[in-house]
Amino acid sequence: MRVAHVITRMIVGGAQENTLFNCLDLQRIYGDDVILITGPSLGPEGDLLQQGRAEGLKVILLPDLVRAIDPVRDWKSLRAIRQTLRDFQPDVVHTHSAKGGILGRQAAHDLGVPAILHTVHGAPFHPYQSPPVRWFYKACEKRAARQCHRLISVADAMTELLTDAGVVAAEKCTTVYSGMNVDPFLWADTHRLAVRQRLGIRDDEVVVGKIARLFHLKGHADLIQAAASVVKAHANVKFLLIGDGILRDELTQQIRQAGLEDRFCFTGLVPPEDIPEYLGAMDLLVHTSYREGLARALPQALIAGKPVISYAIDGAPEVVIDGETGFLVSAGDIDRLADRIVELVGDKKMRADLGGQGRARFTDAFRHETMTSRLREIYQQILADSAGGDR
């Protein structure tokens, strides 16, 4: 099978890791011929392909494929993607991200590729946009949805969001959880003492972690506000922020103004392979993003045996089962967020019980091999349908 993946940029992020695992699994496990078409990995997040994990994968870098809307560069990118696909002659084109998804599906549709899929890692439209911008993105996605055979949702919530917005019919969507290498997370606690010592965290301190870019709508300011209440209840709590981004200085200032400098620790940008050891240093994870398909940090924490407190948005309720693997909080409810953190910080047994249930429920479901096997079955199904004239 010849498979071409298209994604806007290969920064360090969940959608990118998902895509890389799928490409490499298709080659390694099934012997498929795979190419990855992408643009420059610009931004503070870092370049996933520069970490040596894509060895053996043919990567086609298109300099005009950028995230921002740029009519001239977008037209050039469309032509370049179309030519690359024409040369490669894929059986399957699988697209990711907003720009890569729009242009990749158009190019594949123009060429009559037998199987065209798009993974919805997170919808490009959301309530925090202006109405004209939201309408524009919905219209683009609705048109692109007609140019592919199947949409892959990383969570059932993504399908619900798309169908409610009138973008696509539910029967055209299939949920496949975003896969990862789960084994390092199962052994996360073996790094606990070493990482804590390196970060200056005492054995008796309870660590509340958050893994996310320091970016808008990620909710770091909410956590800082809640932390002011948490430290009044527990003198032994520390907050560990994994990630970097444009809001670093602003968040540092908020922490300083709240008098919490000694309670927060920033790690900066962390390579994905180092995330398990930082999870091992934590006692629970907090996720306060206002929009995200299904953040990889949630199943990663649960597989590591750590309970999660999350805003009840998008796909989070599918893994953060309230009262079973963690707690859900309405987005923006700072008081409730603080109360739940206080509760878990003060109850070691509850942390162990919730984290243990999460590990048992989600370890196998999120193996990258499970994801790739399911996706390849969908590829084969679409190809069989196409061969039979059912497009």
From TrEMBL:
Keyword annotations of the record: Capsid protein, Glycosyltransferase, Transferase, Virion
Keyword Membrane part of the UniProt annotation: no
E.C. designation(s): 2.4.-.-
InterPro entries, per database record: Glyco_trans_1 (IPR001296), Glyco_trans_4-like_N (IPR028098)
Any one Pfam family match given in the protein's UniProt record, by short name: Glycos_transf_1
Occurrences of domain Glycosyltransferase subfamily 4-like N-terminal (ranges): 31-177
Domain Glycosyl transferase family: from-to ranges: 196-360
A GO MF label: glycosyltransferase activity
Top-level taxonomic group: Bacteria
Principal EC category: transferase
Gene3D superfamilies: Glycogen Phosphorylase B
UniProt name for this protein: Spore coat protein SA
Protein source organism: Rosistilla ulvae
Gene name of this polypeptide: cotSA_1
